[in-house]
Amino acid sequence: RHGLHLLGTASTWFLLDIAFYSQNLFQKDIFSAIGWIPPAKTMNAIEEVYMIARAQTLIALCSTVPGYWFTVAFIDKIGRFAIQLMGFFFMTVFMFALAIPYDHWTHKDNRIGFVVIYSLTFFFANFGPNATTFVVPAEIFPARFRATCHGISSAAGKLGAIVGAFGFLYLAQNKDKSKADAGYPAGIGVKNALIVLGVVNILGFFFTFLVPEAKGRSLEEMSGENDDAGTTEEPEQSHSYNNNRTVPYV
Q: Which residues form the Major facilitator superfamily (MFS) profile domain (predicted)?
């Protein structure tokens, strides 16, 4: 039973971090690709840092931080499972909404629409698996190996972050090697890289079904420790009863 739960928590954390870290670390490349940030060659270093910081701050204030607030407000009302499932679902929807009509978003008049949808992927990451993948492993496993299972799940997430960081760096390079960044081979382009992230989110959606709901249940109930305690108490009580019997005096 707990093996499937561990597979669910580790795989969803792994898949989430592939998508989440790819989006976070390479916002500059994505915004440059659609023209929301001017090309680096047209700015000095200070201007480039300012433009990137402004864009990232806007995304954080409008989507990332509010997503966490929504999770805090609703995690005990609608449950961890529902929030995680909903998060992966909408991350998938919005990622494909960016990727499939990608050429449409590169036009100057449509850049704001791209940024809005892109922000929603961050909102539902935080009002979704980016919060629950940390919480759930701390609730569903027995105390005797809870820390171990949480550590394994967390390690899977960090592995996903590495895959996302390096994978997207190479995948998002231009298909034309002459237009790729210096020192990098030709990639599949930003459009196809976003499609890959959408597929990753779909996988996260389905692996979420391996994770049980913990809303309104104690740690002992979730881990099954009450059941284990009940089965161990019965023999002890029976043994105590046998020891207390007296032999009649004749």
A: 1-216
What's phi and psi for 63, nearest 5 deg? -140, -50
Element (H, E) at 249: none
How many C-beta atoms surround the C-beta of residue 183 within 10 A?
5
Per-residue pLDDT of 117-146, as tens digits, reads: 989 999 999 999 999 999 999 988 888 889
Whether 225 is covered by a domain: the verdict is no
Rounded to 5°, angle at Cα 172 from 129 and 199: 40
pTM of the model as a whole? 0.80
User: Which H helix or E strand runs over 93?
Assistant: helix 80-99
Residue 179 tokens, joined: 């237009």
φ/ψ region of 79 (left if φ > 0, alpha if ψ in -120 to 50, else beta) reads left
Q: Report which DSSP code applies to 63.
A: I
Does residue 238 fall inside a structural domain? no
The number of residues in the chain equals 250
Distance CA 168, CA 166 (A): 6
Domain that residue 22 falls in: 2-219
H helices of 102-224, in order, are 102-105, 111-126, 129-135, 146-171, 189-207, 219-223
Question: Domain total for the chain?
Answer: 1
Q: Is residue 83 part of a domain?
A: yes
- Interval 74-105: pLDDT, tens: 999 999 999 999 999 999 999 999 999 988 88
The CATH number linked to 184 is 1.20.1250.20
